Q: What sequence folds into this?
């Protein structure tokens, strides 16, 4: 059963509002034509709204894994990536293009979240799904998060 974003838990709605405020200065910093310390964990994705056509510049965290970038995506912005073509990204002071792939399979999300948490331990605070003694994310809460729209975005950079 899936629910609308308006039915997300209060803690998640408050977190989304706080991130919206923090994103304002982050956009300026991440758009710089040179690498910044924030660029080691954050990138700036330029996303086109699926209904309005409006352009959004969304700061998102990322982890490199092989030839892809992994982003935990808990906001509505990921809906704009469904069937999206390649997306312009500002990564460590340079412009690239990457094709987004949304991952919602619970087991695959579990595995990718473990990779993200290992490479960026601070990401666990934003994911806010408890882990067991073996480091696996709680199955029921992970399933609920996926039901509320949580996805992993696997970005495939394209060669230019």
A:
């Amino acid at each position: 059963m899936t629910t609308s974003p308006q039915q997300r838990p209060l803690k998640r709605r408050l977190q989304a509002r706080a991130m919206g405020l923090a994103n304002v200065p982050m956009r300026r910093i991440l758009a710089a034509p040179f690498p910044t310390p924030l660029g080691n964990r954050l990138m700036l994705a330029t996303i086109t709204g699926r209904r309005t056509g409006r352009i959004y510049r969304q700061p998102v965290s990322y982890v490199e894994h092989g030839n892809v970038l992994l982003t935990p995506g808990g906001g509505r912005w990921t809906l704009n990536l469904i069937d999206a073509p390649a997306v312009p990204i500002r990564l460590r002071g340079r412009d690239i293009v990457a094709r987004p792939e949304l991952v919602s399979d619970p087991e695959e999300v579990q595995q990718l979240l473990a990779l993200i948490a290992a490479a960026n331990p601070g990401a666990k605070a934003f994911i806010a799904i408890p882990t067991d003694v073996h480091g696996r994310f709680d199955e029921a809460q992970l399933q609920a998060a996926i039901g509320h729209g949580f996805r992993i975005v696997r970005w495939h950079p394209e060669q230019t």
Summary: The domain at 5-157 is CATH 2.30.110.10 (Pnp Oxidase; Chain A). DSSP finds four helices and seven strands in the chain. The two ends are 41 Å apart (CA to CA).
